[in-house]
Design brief:
The complex is a heterotrimer of chains A (234), B (290) and C (311). With 234 residues, chain A is α+β, with helices and mostly antiparallel strands. Chain A has one domain: Clam (outer membrane lipoprotein receptor (LolB), chain A). Chain A is 22% helix and 43% strand. Chain A has a 10-stranded antiparallel beta sheet, with helices on one face. Chain A is globular and about 85 Å long. In chain A, 28% of the residues are buried. With 290 residues, chain B is mainly alpha-helical. Chain B has one domain. Chain B is built from 11 helices and 4 strands. In chain B, helix 8 packs across helix 9. The radius of gyration of chain B is 21 Å and the shape is elongated. The two termini of chain B are 24 Å apart. With 311 residues, chain C is an alpha/beta fold. Chain C contains 11 helices and 14 strands. The radius of gyration of chain C is 23 Å and the shape is globular. In chain C, the strands form 3 sheets. In chain C, strands 6-7-8-3-9-10 form a 6-stranded mixed beta sheet, sandwiched between helices. In chain C, strands 2-1-4-5 form a 4-stranded antiparallel beta sheet, covered by helices on one side. A 4-stranded antiparallel beta sheet of chain C has the order 12-13-11-14, covered by helices on one side. Classes of the chains: A alpha+beta (234), B mainly alpha (290), C alpha/beta (311). At the B-C interface, helix 1 and helix 6 of B face helix 2 and helix 3 of C. Strand 2 of chain A pairs parallel with strand 3 of chain B.
């Protein structure tokens, strides 16, 4: 009897500690979200670099607009920008945009010499586009250093953030967005490029399915108010 | 020679037929621009559906893009219009019986032939300027300007707005050389005929045949493709491709394959020199019986 | 008289055909030089060689003492020519055509000079009309104006009366005489209208199958002793028999076109006339012809090409 009681007590302790543990991670995520929620809106100047094998794009100056809860727009003044679908909202708030999630502790890892907590977020809503998000959180500063998100529609993408001047707001100085790019090919009958004969080396390069978008932010205007019309596509 | 050139230009531009080319290009370009203005977004959407999991933001269908589309579609038409004048320069005058009068004047046959050729080049240049005004400047006016977004068969090129215009200037210069090559073919054939229909049709047939051979991509034709002038005529598009650095960032102001452009220019120039030289040689020896 | 055109042993060979065969002739200053021959004799080929439109196979051409091949530009500045049917730019007016060709000939006439030239050929009222509205005769006159606009010393006219009505032909004749006598030009004229040539030409060259047959003045070529009389009577057969049995039998020629032909010296024609009356031969017409046409037909091949035209 005593033996059984001891085992029951042990199980209860483990369960409680697990519950406490899981609760700790959820609290951490909520703290990060609360920090991010201090930012109601911002506009940021930045430089956009697109690194996709089959896209030759120049480095462009952009302005990024954000407004709670999830309005996000990237504008290249007078130009054309090509951004991956789904990951267009390259913003932390959208990474942890749902309250209805289950957070699981997955240990620690060092990223750029910073110890980060690995937190796996599982949305409770089965219909959610996001299947799984893995956050790498800098606990000391309540900053997300990295996020790997798997979505139903747009596959898996990875966000790497660097912080300097705007750490207190949780706004990164640099975001690197990595994703899988599908093959690109257009028939020559449409492009009328009958003269093009791509070399085998170049063909192999073009088949590289990894793509990357980098945004280097130079300045943020935070909580100054932004008109909703800014987010209307024209 | 300057006197002769003035006379040849006078004859070309006093002839009503000359203005057909200017009128035809205007109608064609305006129709294309109208179509793109009305249904351009659908065209852009159709092209973009091949882009997969990317969103494209910005003014895709701008003046630079429209000009590029117009030039691509007019690749066959403009050479035909040039041929109408070039292939008529010698045979047309033989047909109406004026050639014997012209060649009995106190000018060397070389001067007369060169004056006719230079006049053809000036006509070609004016036609090209006309096309540039309509295709580029009017498009810029109607559609505005933005970056140039080009979807090639294997990759996409985005050229910054302020990096586009000089490329068009270069492309038009290259197009001039290409069209003068076409004119040289017509001019050369004109020396053999006493009726301009033959040289016109023959020149167009040669262009069509060479274009088909170049398009087929059959190994058996790979040996001759590099020598066909039609293969090199389309290299103007290379001005709209840029180099990238180690980080795959496009480098403004660069051209991906400048050696290809230079090579094509040399080939086309060789065609011009050989064909015009041959025309002069033939005409110097030829008995004028017309 | 200075020679202005000297042609020595000029030949042109086309594969198996020798179009011009060792042709030599001289045109002196002030000549109205008639250049005659049947179709295909080589006249146009020769004229084209004079204008450097055709390269000779052999021989030499000198104009104004200058070798044509070596001093082409200098020579051609002083030549005006109509070659066969003159053609001009149909989409230009007569005025603009004349202006254009004047510039090509190295002169820049004023508007007044151009209009004067058009007036001379009777086209002043149509000066600004497009040539495609002109008749053949008007184009011919415009061609003559073009040939003369730069005041050349030598004028080469290849069939200048083609397409002209009788008045037009008479006008050309008068123009030729004016150019020769008043303006002291040298003219080389090729024509089929032999009676017209007879009226204007001072010297003649007759060629056949590319070869020279005769060259000289009309006086040198036409022997007065060889005057041909064409006689038509009420009974040609009887008259022919009578003449054949008379002292005039040596003068009798083969009949042609239902006419009796008798050749004699001009001075004995009256005697022959008297004899005809004495013989009671009923004469319908009697014409003395020492015509160029007859001479021409005599010395050229003379073959009638269509049997229906032979009597």
């Amino acid at each position: 009897m005593t033996y059984i009681l001891k085992i029951l007590l042990l199980l209860l302790t483990i369960h409680l500690s697990l519950f406490t543990y899981s609760q700790d991670v959820t609290d951490l995520v909520n703290k990060v979200k609360a920090k991010l929620d201090k930012v109601k809106d911002y506009s940021a100047n930045g430089v956009l670099k697109t690194d996709v094998a089959f896209i030759k794009a120049p480095v462009s100056k952009i302005i990024v607009y954000y407004k709670k809860p999830n309005h996000f727009r990237l504008v290249k003044n007078g130009g054309i920008s090509v951004l991956p679908k789904g990951g267009i909202s390259v913003n932390m708030s959208t990474v942890i945009s749902t309250n209805n999630f289950t957070a699981l502790d997955a240990g620690y890892i060092t990223i750029d010499n910073i110890k980060t907590k690995i937190v796996k977020l599982l949305p409770n809503d089965d219909s959610s586009n996001v299947v799984l998000s893995t956050l790498y959180i800098d606990e000391a500063n309540l900053l997300i250093r990295k996020a790997v998100t798997t979505t139903r529609e747009n596959g898996t993408y990875e966000l790497n953030m660097s912080y300097k001047k705007y750490m207190e707001y949780g706004l990164p100085d640099k975001v690197v967005f990595s994703f899988n790019a599908k093959d690109y090919k257009l028939p020559k009958g449409i492009t009328l490029d009958f003269d093009e004969n791509t070399s085998p080396d170049k063909m192999n390069k073009l088949k590289n399915k990894k793509g990357k978008v980098e945004i280097d932010y130079s300045s943020y205007n935070i909580n100054k108010g932004i008109n909703d019309a800014v987010f209307t596509k024209n | 020679m300057w006197q002769l050139l003035q006379i040849e230009l006078y004859k070309i531009f006093r002839r009503p037929r000359t203005y057909i080319a200017f009128g035809a290009t205007a109608v064609l370009i305006i129709l294309l621009q109208f179509g793109l203005k009305v249904d351009g977004q659908e065209y852009a959407d159709f092209m973009l559906q091949n882009l997969g999991n990317f969103d494209v933001q910005g003014k895709l269908l701008n003046g630079y893009m429209v000009c590029y589309i117009v030039l691509q579609l007019m690749l066959v038409h403009i050479p035909l219009l040039v041929t109408l004048v070039a292939a008529d320069m010698i045979s047309g005058e033989a047909n109406i019986g004026v050639l014997r009068l012209v060649l009995s004047k106190p000018y060397s046959r070389t001067s007369v032939i060169l004056a006719k050729f230079w006049a053809t080049c000036i006509y070609t240049l004016l036609l090209l300027i006309w096309v540039a005004i309509l295709a580029l400047f009017v498009s810029m006016l109607v559609f505005g300007t933005s970056d140039l977004f080009l979807m090639k068969s294997e990759y996409i090129v985005i050229i910054k707005q302020d990096d586009v215009f000089w490329r068009y200037c270069c492309a038009f210069c290259f197009a001039f050389v290409a069209l003068v090559t076409v004119a040289s073919v017509g001019f050369f054939l004109s020396a053999f005929a006493e009726n301009s229909i033959g040289p016109i049709i023959t020149t167009m047939s040669i262009i069509i045949l060479f274009t088909v051979l170049g398009t087929l991509n059959l190994p058996v034709f790979d040996y001759i493709n590099p020598y066909l002038f039609t293969t090199h005529m389309v290299i103007w598009k290379e001005f709209f491709d840029e180099k990238v650095n180690a980080n795959n960032e496009a480098i403004a102001g660069t051209i991906q394959d400048m050696p290809a452009i230079i090579h094509s220019l040399l080939v086309l120039s060789t065609y011009i020199i050989v064909l015009v030289g041959a025309t002069i040689f033939i005409m110097r020896k030829k008995d004028i019986l017309s | 008289m200075q020679p202005v055109i000297q042609v020595n042993n000029l030949s042109k060979q086309y594969k198996n055909i020798k179009a011009v065969d060792a042709l030599s002739f001289t045109v002196n200053e002030g000549d109205v030089y008639g250049f005659l021959g049947q179709n295909g004799a080589g006249k146009s080929t020769t004229i084209r060689m004079l204008l450097t439109l055709i390269q000779p196979t052999a021989g030499e051409i000198k104009l104004f003492g200058l070798n044509l091949q070596k001093q082409r530009k200098k020579v051609l500045r002083n030549i005006g020519a109509i070659i066969e049917k003159p053609d001009v730019y149909k989409y230009l007016s007569a005025y603009n055509n004349l202006k254009l060709f004047a510039r090509m000939s190295g002169v820049h006439p004023s508007e007044k000079q151009i209009m004067q030239q058009l007036d001379m050929v009777g086209l002043i009222d149509r000066a600004h009309d497009k040539v495609h509205t002109f008749s053949q005769g008007m184009k011919q006159r415009l061609g003559i104006a073009i040939a003369l606009i730069h005041d050349p010393q030598i004028i080469i006219l290849d069939e200048p009366t083609n397409g002209l009505d009788p008045q037009g032909i008479a006008d050309i004749r008068n123009l030729i005489l004016h150019l020769s006598r008043e303006m002291k030009k040298t003219l080389l004229i090729s024509s089929h209208l032999l009676n017209e040539m007879e009226q204007v030409a001072t010297r003649l060259l007759i060629i056949d199958k590319g070869k020279k047959l005769v060259e000289g003045t009309t006086n040198e070529l036409f022997d007065p002793a060889q005057t041909l009389i064409e006689l038509e009577t009420l009974n040609n057969a009887e008259a022919f028999a009578l003449i054949g049995n008379s002292l005039w039998h040596d003068n009798l020629q083969p009949q042609r076109n239902n006419k009796i032909l008798v050749k004699m010296h001009r001075n004995t024609i009256p005697d022959f006339n008297v004899w005809l009356v004495q013989q009671n031969i009923k004469v319908v017409s009697l014409q003395a012809r020492h015509s160029l046409e007859d001479y021409f037909l005599q010395i050229t091949s003379g073959t009638q090409h269509v049997a229906a035209f032979t009597n």
